[in-house]
Design brief:
Chain lengths: ~120, ~110
């Protein structure tokens, strides 16, 4: 089975632009989470979706939004990009949602976003 | 304030020795704690999950302990190998916010 896939692999944008990142979970996984990882730090939670509904949100501004589609794939959108948004954006899927992130997270390779 | 601290940014050990990594947390009461491995340019890979009512869990050469009184987890790799060189992250679930918080990670280097 294929693991979590993310596209694109790398992306370069300029300040003020908008970006859409995509994630396909492992087949059969219904929960998708998004994380931002700045160099030298651990991943920081942005969103979790389960069955197309938002089930958790981290401490990120409203410029960040996401959605989950009927096939359980997901998009992360970031508007009005800032230099500080430069990071590795990770998507993780898990097979179930038990009311908290207690399930094993299977991470994708990430999208490296650079904002100039 | 809430914090997750991993003992050091980097740990260097000799092949064959036991590596011990520490994860301390304050002002959290996690029901679960997880350990992940991350190689450069890649996403984290799940290693072990330990629940608050479990003191210890093992998987092959890996062992994790969880002391909710000390608010600390220890992660051990026995008979370490150069292939174990990576960054190791601990993560706590944050209820009821459906959130998971990661430490900054410890970069382990195992020298032959």
């Amino acid at each position: 089975d294929a693991g979590v896939t993310q596209s694109p692999t790398h992306l370069i944008k300029t300040r003020g632009q908008h970006v859409t990142l995509r994630c396909s979970p492992i087949s059969g996984h219904k929960s998708v989470s998004w994380y931002q990882q700045v160099l030298g730090q651990g991943p920081q939670f942005i969103f979790q979706y389960y069955e197309k509904e938002e089930r958790g949100r981290g401490n990120f501004p409203d410029r960040f939004s996401a959605r989950q589609f009927p096939n359980y794939s997901s998009e992360l959108n970031v508007n009005a990009l800032l230099l500080g948004d430069s990071a590795l954006y990770l998507c993780a899927s898990s097979p179930t949602f038990t009311g908290g992130i207690a399930d094993t997270q299977y991470f994708g390779p990430g999208t490296r976003l650079t904002v100039l | 304030s809430q914090k997750i601290e991993q003992n050091s940014e980097a740990l260097n050990i000799q092949e064959g020795k036991t590596a011990t990594l520490t994860c301390n947390y304050t002002n959290y009461s996690p029901a679960y704690l997880q350990w992940y491995r991350q190689d450069p340019g890649r996403g984290p890979v799940f290693l072990l999950l330990i629940r608050e009512n479990e003191k210890e869990k093992r998987k092959e050469r890996l062992k994790v302990t969880f002391d909710t009184t000390l608010k600390q987890s220890l992660f051990h790799i026995t008979a370490s190998q150069p292939a174990d060189s990576a960054t190791y992250l601990c993560a706590l679930d944050i209820r009821p916010y459906n959130d998971m918080r990661f430490g900054a990670g410890t970069r382990l280097t195992v020298k032959p």
